[in-house]
Amino acid sequence: MTDIQAMFSDPQAVANYTDGPPRFVPGYNAMLSMAAILLAERAHQDARILVLGAGGGLELRMFAQAQPRWSFDGVDPSGAMLALARQTLGPLAPRARLHQGYIDDAPEGPFDGATCLLTLHFVDIAERRRIASEIRRRLKPRAPFVVAHLSAPDGDEERARWLSRYSAFLAFSGVEPDKAAAARDAVTHHLEILTPAQDEAILRAAGFSDPALFYTGFAFRGWVAYA
């Protein structure tokens, strides 16, 4: 089991997960709202949406509240995180089918839209390319795909500057300074952070058109692109 898998299986970490993203990701709630708006630009009122990395249920809840007739297929490798998603959804849970696994375990669709938020920085570049292609294959023509994760400019000095700003944001949000510094070190040494140009190239290579940056939060970025 990898460190990441262990983290998302640890009962205490899972229990506290929903408090994390709003504190650790700059502009997290606004990013979710923007993702819902971008999906709704092309997804009809009865749309079926694929959510990859759905554990915890925060984006599922946001999307379900925003669009009362949408239904969802959420995929996540952690059974504990999927159980938390059901809890987070509460009375909205019947609108979401949850699948334990990875992209290959997702239904074939076709879907009216898809998201993959705060997930791809956990996998290497080859797997990102494969995931993007598999999501594209499951989407209807011209359906939107919204993706966001860690992405920072190349170059030791510039990347270090953005990661330092991210660490400062954590401290500003109430994280103890030593833990904020440790989080920066973990991000630097254990995650594969690509440049924005590389991230856009992956979308294009997978067959998505018109990738457009819609969100930037220090070392995080998000794009919308179309099948």
Automatic annotation (TrEMBL):
<dbReference type="GO" id="GO:0008168">
    <property type="term" value="F:methyltransferase activity"/>
</dbReference>
<protein>
    <submittedName>
        <fullName>Class I SAM-dependent methyltransferase</fullName>
    </submittedName>
</protein>
<keyword id="KW-0808">Transferase</keyword>
<dbReference type="InterPro" id="IPR041698">
    <property type="entry name" value="Methyltransf_25"/>
</dbReference>
<dbReference type="GO" id="GO:0032259">
    <property type="term" value="P:methylation"/>
</dbReference>
<dbReference type="Pfam" id="PF13649">
    <property type="entry name" value="Methyltransf_25"/>
</dbReference>
<feature type="domain" description="Methyltransferase">
    <location>
        <begin position="49"/>
        <end position="141"/>
    </location>
</feature>
<dbReference type="InterPro" id="IPR029063">
    <property type="entry name" value="SAM-dependent_MTases_sf"/>
</dbReference>
<keyword id="KW-0489">Methyltransferase</keyword>
